[in-house]
Amino acid sequence: MPRMWLWVEGKGEAPHRETGSGGAAAVLVRRILGEKYQDYTWQIDHLKVGNVHHFRAHMARYVNYLRKRRNEIDAVLVLLDLDDGCAMQIARDMANEMWRLEPPNPIAIVLAVREYEAWFLAAANSLWGRPYHGSPEGVRDAKGAVRCFLEDYAPTTYQASLSAQMDLTEAEQNSRSFRRIVHAVGELREAVFQEHEMKKVVVTPRNDREQGGVYG
Length: 216
Prior knowledge:
216 residues, globular
C-alpha cells in the first residue's frame, strides 16, 4: 500500500492527535485519488509545517526528516495557504529550492490561493445550494465569506465534513489552485509508479531550466 505524507499548515487540515477532529486535507486527497484517478490504495499521514514563510525558512530540516523516513513514505504533498502573490510562481520557486536539497521522494507543492476555504467557495453551489458571487480566489477573508453561508463555521469543526461533501468538478471549474491540487495528486501517483522502474524523484511544479529534467 503506497503512503503519501501531507505537509500542511493549519489545525483543520491535519487531525487533532487526541480528538481526531480535523483532517480535511486527507479527506480531500482521498476523494481526489478515488474520484479522479480511481485509486483507493493510498495510506495518508500528516505533518504540520507552519505557513509558507515558516516552511521555506525550515525546508532543509523537513527534507532531512523525510530522509529518515524515506523507506516509509512514497510521496509528499505540501499543501499551504498563500495570502498574497502569484501562487504558480511562488510554488515554482519553492520547488526549485526543494529540488536543490535533493529530496529522496517525489514531492508536489500546492498553494491554496488565499485560504483552503476558497475551495469551499468555489464549490458553494454543491454545498449550500447557491453559488458564491465573486472570485473565490480573489476574496481576502475566505473564512469570513464561508460564514455568510455557514454562520458558525470553524476550520476544526467543519473543514473535513465540507471537504467530504463538496463537488470536486465544480471546484475545479471555479478555482485554478484546486485544479492544481488535482493535477499534483496525479503527478505524485505517476512518479511513484514510475520510480520503481526509472529511479527518478520529481519535485513539482517543475521549472525545467532550473531542474534540468533530472528529477522528472
